[in-house]
TrEMBL record:
InterPro entries (UniProt xref): Ig-like_fold, Ig_E-set, Papain-like_cys_pep_sf, Transglutaminase, Transglutaminase-like, Transglutaminase-like_sf, Transglutaminase_animal, Transglutaminase_C
Cellular-component GO terms for this entry: membrane
Any one GO molecular function term: metal ion binding
Annotated compartments: Membrane
Organism annotation: Mugilogobius chulae (yellowstripe goby)
Function as written in the Swiss-Prot or TrEMBL entry: Catalyzes the cross-linking of proteins and the conjugation of polyamines to proteins. Responsible for cross-linking epidermal proteins during formation of the stratum corneum. Involved in cell proliferation.
Listed name of the protein: Protein-glutamine gamma-glutamyltransferase K
Length: 652
């Protein structure tokens, strides 16, 4: 019994390697945060050091880690994480590996998935022997703070621009705009997201911003700020006096959750951290018909994230408004609403898109009371609200006008189509006249397997007139590069085309995107989205179509050479032809075949434009039966290139 007790392994201490100057904090872009907590970002490895009461022996000892967050941690919810020890770390999973061992100390490298729950975690180290003895648990007195990771491509908040990451994630101060559309004022605001304040929110980005939008205002849930537009602030602080989120949150925290008095829209927008502050002039909040008003200005936030809960193309910037104006599902909050959905009038997409659309797009309707007490619409002012939508420019204190992100150019046909589309899903779908007929259709067709990488992308737009009368329309098209998460990177081509149709005529329009226009714009999966919109002149029917397509990459051709027999050397020839008229830099092949060959990397180097490269792999099969030799190519200019060969291995 005594010998067993001496053999038993236990933890003496855990060093989270969490100082501001530590490698962890620098690699995770958290070294500017105050304090010495371990603040890390998900989807990235970090290291800790464990001191034991004796040296660790992999032949006799077992060790694993556990992380817990929230009031009721559950493995099924991802709030209780069990981290196993492995020999090799792999992406997108919780794992730990011993990377250094000195006497009684071991250094662990820990990997987290990009989907990990964000929040405050408690850490436990569990040790036991391989014989199955009762485990010993050590609970670390220090916590781990897990944040979203805009630097990680697999994270739904990935932001593919270092200057924007510096501005929207790392920058502690910003600018908030106010005034009127002809007299725009600006003030500096201290967001203080790196100050020593408790972390809040956990889960996926959509749920987090929904919670934060509700938490900031105190309207119905004892949130941070009390709204006051009365002009009497004698029992609190005037909204205009605040200039820092830090002061507000500290006051709220030190008073054990007593809402802080007072805030107005620019204060509510300054309180959410790591968001883009947005301002628009002449805003129209929705209210009862006899209480409609147009605000001089309003301030809210934009947050960047993918929206897997919405159709592709609606990721990216999302509008979030903490000012308590109306409830959303019973709570005073607003958003996230896709800015792309707002722009196109797709108000049926969640969350609270109709409200934000109305704020920046409402027409001002003039009514006249008739002698019999009824009302008649006498004038509609089309450009009344949503002017000079602004935010601080990236890398400077200048004002950047982002109205084009929220709405098409005032008075353009695209803008009118968006407004009318939104109105059809509103409480008054007949405000705009309905089309007299809907007898024209538009669809996009793709030939074969679709456009090929390195060549001009060609699609066919089929427009059909199903009536016995002539029809004429102008189709507006724009194509944007899209991440696989559904986030649009940016528009790379816009054009319009006039289409005249005879009765019952079908017309095919060949749409072309030249290689030169997309060659430097593509990302990861080489996906694009083509959006078409238009209106039929004779009937006022609205035409709309969105088509997602990708540029096909070539396959690697793998040809087995010689007989496939266990224990006998054979070979396979791997051939690749560069589809681009430009040189591929630092090309690497990865080759693996279970029962054929261990996975390894082959450095190819540069491959010239339209050039063909061939390499021969030699290997000795170790297992009989049907096997697959798999290869993939990796380089910065071209991804998603792979190939496979089926090899039937005979026994000796």
């Amino acid at each position: 019994m005594k010998e067993m007790e001496e053999v038993k392994l236990s933890v003496s201490s855990v060093d989270l390697l969490s100082s501001q100057a530590s490698q962890n904090r620098k690699e995770h872009h958290t070294d500017l945060f105050h304090g010495d907590e371990l603040i890390i970002r998900r989807g990235q490895t970090f290291q800790i050091q464990v001191e034991l009461d004796r040296p660790f022996n992999a032949n006799t000892d077992k060790l694993h880690l556990e992380l817990k967050t929230g009031g009721l941690p559950l493995v099924s919810k991802g709030t209780h994480v069990i981290i196993p020890m492995v020999d090799h770390l792999e992406d997108e999973r919780w794992e730990a590996k011993i990377v250094e061992q000195t006497d009684n100390k071991i250094k662990l490298s820990i990997n987290s998935p990009a989907s990990a729950i964000v929040g405050l975690y408690g850490l436990s180290v569990i040790t036991s022997s391989l014989k199955g003895d009762n485990p010993t648990t050590y609970n670390s007195p220090k916590h781990i703070v897990m944040l979203f990771n805009p630097w990680c491509e697999e994270d739904t908040v990935f932001l593919d621009d270092e200057d924007e990451r510096k501005e929207y994630v790392l920058n502690d101060t910003g600018r908030i705009y106010y005034g009127t559309e002809k007299q725009i004022g600006a003030r500096t605001w201290n967001f203080g997201q790196k100050s020593d304040m408790p972390p809040s929110g956990r889960g996926d980005p959509v749920n987090v911003v929904r919670v934060l939008s509700a938490m900031i205002n105190a309207q119905d849930d004892h949130g941070v700020l009390v709204g006051n537009w009365s002009g009497d602030y004698s029992d609190g602080v005037s909204p205009a006096a605040w200039s820092s989120s830090v002061e507000i949150v500290r006051k709220y925290h030190s008073s054990y959750g007593t809402p802080v008095c007072y805030g107005q829209c620019w204060v509510f927008s300054g309180s959410p951290q790591q968001c883009c502050v947005v301002l628009a002039f002449l805003l129209a909040p929705l209210d009862y018909l006899n209480k409609d008003s147009v605000w001089n200005f309003h301030v809210w936030n934009d947050c960047w994230m993918a929206r897997p809960d919405l159709p592709p193309g609606n990721g990216g910037w999302q509008a979030v408004d903490s000012t308590p104006q109306e409830t959303s599902q019973g709570t005073f909050r607003c958003g996230p609403a896709s800015v792309n959905a707002i722009r196109s009038g797709q108000v049926y997409l969640k969350h609270d898109t109709p409200f934000v659309f109305a704020e920046v797009n409402s027409d001002k309707i003039y009514w006249q009371r008739n002698l019999d007490g009824t009302f008649s619409q006498i004038f509609s002012e089309k450009k009344a609200v949503g002017h000079f939508i602004s935010t601080k420019a990236v890398g400077s204190d200048e004002r950047e006008d982002i109205t084009h992100l929220y709405k098409y150019q005032e008075g353009s046909e695209e803008e009118r189509i968006a407004v009318e589309t939104a109105s059809r899903y509103g409480s008054k779908p007949d405000v705009y006249s309905s089309p007299s007929a809907e007898d024209v259709s538009v669809e996009v067709k793709m030939e074969g397997e679709g456009p090929r990488m390195g060549a001009d992308a060609q699609l066919s737009i089929l427009v059909k007139n199903m009536s016995s009368e002539p029809r004429q329309t102008t189709l507006h098209s724009q194509v944007a590069v899209m991440y696989y998460t559904g986030v649009l990177k940016g528009t790379i081509k816009k054009e319009q085309m006039s289409v005249e149709l005879q009765p019952n005529e079908e017309k095919t329009i060949e749409w072309v995107l030249p290689y030169q226009q997309y060659q430097n714009q593509l990302v990861d999966q080489a996906a694009l989205m083509l959006t078409l919109s238009g209106r039929v002149n004779e009937t006022q029917q609205v035409l709309a179509n969105q088509t997602t397509f990708r540029l096909r990459t070539p396959d690697l051709t793998i040809s087995p050479l010689g007989d496939a027999v266990v224990g006998k050397e054979m070979a396979a020839k791997i051939t690749f032809t560069n589809p681009l008229p430009r040189t591929l830099k630092d090309v690497v092949f990865r080759v693996e075949g279970l029962g054929l060959q261990k996975g390894h990397v082959v450095i190819v180097g540069d491959v010239g434009g339209l050039a063909t490269v061939t390499l021969t792999e030699h290997f000795i099969p170790t297992q009989p039966g049907p096997r697959k030799l798999v290869a993939s190519l990796d380089c910065k200019q071209l991804t998603q290139v792979h190939g496979v060969a089926d090899i039937n291995v005979l026994d000796q």
